[in-house]
């Protein structure tokens, strides 16, 4: 795959070291350049022009020094690295910067946020994920070897094939395990039973849903020229995906983006957001295909 530039978004250190390490690892594998971004979110206007410029310079210098210190302990000597320190709203700055530099992948930590706004609307990571401008790799593990055991969670939607293709190109040496979780939500099951559907018909409906998921996984696997393993799971999708990753010792979960809107994501939580929150490993959330339905 052609991956010319990665964007690494770093905030706190030493947590940001794992983000930098994973970004440099992927950049080296693909011969890509790296832009490292740190957004300084300054609440309110700076006190005065002179003091404001001085304060801004101090903030930028401190952020750049921390990034350069972290890079000093990592192997990035042969990689084209550009460091950007910007002031503004984190989500807007990061998505704009990804567009400006032509990033093919953004890498961030799994920030959860402590402010009330973060708890209501989601952390910076949540909101960047919701924007869907560029594939997003959320680093949950510390500094680790290259991803080798990838679990790709399909949902039968239009983003499945694009997510699989991106993951396979990003990690050509990794093993791939495709899963899809199926269930009849409780409200629908109760409604079906109320209209007189018997247990046998309900079980037949469950089997039909599972068979459709199995066909979807086989069709996805057929798009690749490498071996993959497949499994259809029962139950809540987010819970089933996290359990499967733990059971298999996966070091990366790959998701397409579902169909929930922004306010549902904010107050209820999409499958992707819940997986990022609970996953035992890194999570890659891929953008939908052009013209497709976004999450």
UniProtKB/TrEMBL annotation:
The family database entries (SUPFAM superfamilies) matched by this protein are listed as: Adenine nucleotide alpha hydrolases-like
| Domain called UspA: residue spans | 5-140, 149-287
What domain of life is recorded for the organism? Bacteria
Similarity field = Belongs to the universal stress protein A family.
Record-given protein name: Universal stress protein/MSMEI_3859
């Amino acid at each position: 795959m052609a991956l010319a530039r990665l964007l690494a978004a770093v905030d706190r250190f030493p947590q940001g070291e794992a983000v930098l390490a994973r970004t440099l690892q992927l950049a080296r594998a693909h011969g890509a350049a790296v832009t490292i971004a740190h957004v300084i979110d300054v609440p309110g206007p700076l006190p005065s022009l002179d003091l404001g410029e001085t304060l801004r310079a101090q903030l930028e210098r401190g952020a750049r020094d921390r990034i350069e210190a972290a890079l000093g302990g990592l192997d990035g000597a042969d990689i084209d690295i550009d460091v950007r320190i910007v002031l503004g709203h984190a989500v807007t700055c990061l998505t704009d910067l990804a567009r400006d530099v032509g990033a093919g992948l953004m890498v961030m930590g799994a920030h959860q946020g402590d402010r009330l706004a973060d708890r209501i609307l989601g952390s910076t990571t949540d909101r960047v994920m919701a924007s869907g401008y560029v594939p997003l790799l959320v680093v949950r593990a510390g500094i680790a070897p290259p991803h080798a055991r990838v679990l790709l969670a399909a949902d039968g939607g239009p983003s499945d094939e694009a997510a699989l293709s991106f993951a396979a190109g990003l990690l050509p040496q990794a093993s791939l395990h495709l899963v899809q979780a199926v269930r009849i939500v409780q409200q629908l099951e109760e409604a079906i039973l109320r209209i007189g559907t018997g247990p046998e018909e309900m079980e037949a409906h469950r089997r039909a849903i599972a068979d459709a998921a199995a066909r979807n996984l086989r069709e996805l696997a057929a798009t690749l020229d490498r071996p993959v393993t497949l499994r259809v799971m029962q139950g809540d999708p987010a819970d089933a995906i996290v359990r499967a990753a733990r059971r298999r010792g996966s070091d990366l979960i790959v998701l397409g983006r579902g169909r929930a809107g922004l306010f549902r994501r904010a107050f209820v939580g999409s499958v992707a957001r819940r997986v990022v929150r609970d996953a035992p490993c890194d999570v890659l959330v891929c953008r939908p295909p052009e013209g497709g339905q976004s999450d």
